[in-house]
Amino acid sequence: INKKYIKGNAKLLTFVNNEILFTKLLNHRNILKLLETYETPLYVFIIMEKFKGEFLSTYMKKHVKLEESKAIKIFARIISAMAFIHSLNVCHLNINLDSILLDENDENIIKIFDFRYGQ
């Protein structure tokens, strides 16, 4: 993140700080892990776990009709992650098909990311 875009913008700075803080706290198998953050005078670097997959929206376009068993597995993993987030009194304010990734080798593995948090 280029600091020149967040300098002087209190709302954006709060968003970035919350994204980092809350994502560090969320340790769940279905949430993309934040591994580390580094800061230089010009940038903030956010290092996330490596995950090869595609957006759920892309997957849904390819597979217009899902088998019920596949849909149940995907939905159960989303609900598991959301229940965990809510147990910490945090809510994901941007949950949509583009904030959920499916593993390219195993569509039963999902990761939620791109949080816009509320407390």
For the report, how would you describe the main beta sheet?
3 strands, antiparallel
Number of helices: 4
Task: Tell me the Rg in angstroms.
Answer: 16 Å
- Taken in chain order, the helices and strands follow as HHEEEHHEEEE
Uncertain runs with pLDDT below 50, 5 residues or more?
none
Strand content: 15-25%
Give the helix/strand class: alpha+beta
Write down the oligomeric state: single chain
Distance between the termini: 23 Å
Share of residues in helices: 25-40%
Total number of strands: 7
Average pLDDT taken over every residue: 87
Outline: elongated
Q: Enumerate the strands of the largest sheet in spatial order, edge to edge or round the barrel.
A: 3-5-6
Characterization of the model:
This protein has 119 residues and is α+β, with helices and mostly antiparallel strands. Helix content is 39%, strand content 21%. The chain has helices at 3-6, 10-25, 56-62, 68-87, and strands at 34-39, 44-48, 53-55, 91-92, 100-103, 110-112, 117-118. A three-stranded antiparallel beta sheet has the order 3-5-6. A hairpin with a 4-residue loop joins strand 1 (34-39) and strand 2 (44-48). The longest helix has 20 residues, at 68-87. It starts with a helix and ends with a strand.
The gist of it:
With 119 residues, this protein is an alpha+beta fold. The chain has helices spanning 3-6, 10-25, 56-62, 68-87; strands at 34-39, 44-48, 53-55, 91-92, 100-103, 110-112, 117-118.
